[in-house]
Amino acid sequence: MDAVFWHTKWEQNQIGFHSPVPHPFLVSYFARLNLKPGAHVLVPLCGKTLDIHWLLAAGCRVTGIELSPVAVEALFQDLGLVPQIEAVPNAISYTAGTLRVFVGDIFECTPQSIGRVDAVYDRAALIALPEAVRASYAQHLIGLAQNAPQLLTCVEYDQSKRAGPPFAVLAHEVSALYGAAYRVAELEKTLLPEGIKGLCPAYETVWHLSPKGG
Ligand SMILES: C[S@@+](CC[C@H](N)C(=O)[O-])C[C@H]1O[C@@H](n2cnc3c(N)ncnc32)[C@H](O)[C@@H]1O
Asked: To the nearest 5 percent, what fractions of the chain are helix, strand and coil?
């Protein structure tokens, strides 16, 4: 999945991953992050998710990272916000109020540009990436967020039945990717009524990653 793949998806509005409501796992389990008012939440590979609307309404400061300017312009428009747009190293920064989104490649973002993060909300980010990239992504995200706790959603299905994205990321892989830095706890596992695009049965899982020693 290179950048062209995702730019094309957004330009052709092929965004089946975009949900018309905030994710029920976010609504149910956000409190587990135990954040203070005004906490800074990093949303990697954010698209134009309504989860950002929900986090802002919950009083969070939000930083998103997203490749597609089409997605980010739609996000601000849906929120009724007019962003200030400026070029920053390796990205374009869109800011309005307590929302900032970097339009660029997450692998080009640095902890210095993001600032101190209190939590990460990863929905359909890790699972958007092929297996060969996921270990680098996980390490990069840990560094970007400086070990901040995470709420992570994944899907589980038989990868031999269908190519991703979304890619299946099973419990053993979550532990392998994050177990050295975090205590890894599965909070819920739900059968997806339509499976993966109606082609194979699938579960959705939500994980709480809490920093070891934190
Ligand atoms: C499956 S979508 C999920 C979007 C959002 N999290 C949601 O739940 O609706 C994955 C998103 O990641 C973006 N993306 C893919 N690779 C990226 C990268 N290297 N850096 C930043 N964004 C990326 C894509 O443009 C796409 O919007």
From this structure: 35, 30, 35
Q: Residue 165 phi/psi, 5° resolution? A: -80, 155
What is the per-residue pLDDT across 50-62, written as a single tens digit (0 to 9) for each?
999 999 999 999 9
Q: Which CATH fold would you assign to the domain 3-211?
A: Rossmann fold (3.40.50)
What are the pLDDT digits (tens) for 62-76? Answer: 999 999 999 999 999
Determine the atom of ligand 1 nearest the C-alpha atom of 165.
1
- Looking at the chain, the number of H-run helices and the number of E-run strands are 7, 9
Residue 1 is predicted with a pLDDT of: 66
Q: Which of 5, 51, 53, 66 to mutate to test the pocket of ligand 1 (most atoms within 8 A of CB)?
A: 66
Domain borders along the chain are: 3-211
The CA R_g of the chain, rounded to the nearest whole Å, is 16
Residue nearest to atom 4 of ligand 1 (CA): 47
Contacts (Cβ under 8 Å, ≥6 apart) of 81: 96, 97, 99
Residue from 4, 5, 6, 105 to probe ligand 1 pocket by mutation (most atoms less than 8 Å from CB): 6
